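Me: I'm a chemist; would you kindly supply a protein sequence with its structure tokens?

Assistant:
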Amino acid sequence: MAIPLTEKLVGFILRPVGTFRDARDETVVDAGIYFLVLLVINALITAVLSVLGFSAVESVESTFGIGATTGALDFVGSLVAAFIGGIVVLIVLSVFLHVGARFAGGRGDFADSLKSSVYSLTPSMLLGWLVIIPVIGWILGLVFFIWSVVLLVLGVRELHELDTGRAIIAVVIAIGIILLILVILAVVIGVALFALFGIFSSSGGPLPVVTVVST
């Protein structure tokens, strides 16, 4: 039986162990609906904050009557980016968490890894926007990240039927693989940009612009 939405939103933040146990028999559809709610909340907050920040930077646009249009485009762009980014994060995290869980001896299937990933994202997606608060924002961001990792460990432990030590190993493997992939991508992109700018420099830069003056 699915847990009421509000109960899950509060439960995964205040009493995660009991909530994970209650959610053990939930279906992937239940987890998907919950993630969709998180995604909508996160995307809307992200888009609104993006528009507010944009308006504060370029208020002069309102003089020319284009501020509202640009702000609307910025809102839609941020909304779409947040949706796509959230889905990508969930898929990547679920895949490598399942790899780590299987390596650690987990008994659950991919659906359990998916549910663990969805529920662990609750603090970051629900409260992550608080990082905009001056001075303490980065501290709050770190707290939410750590809390999400803790939820990930608890989820793997409860849904994959592992002890805490093996659950930690599973999460470390998942995060380690993701970080390794990010490092490799950063190196590849860096080398590509370096080579591109190297070729650009050796060719003498862009062709000079010739201006024809008519008399």
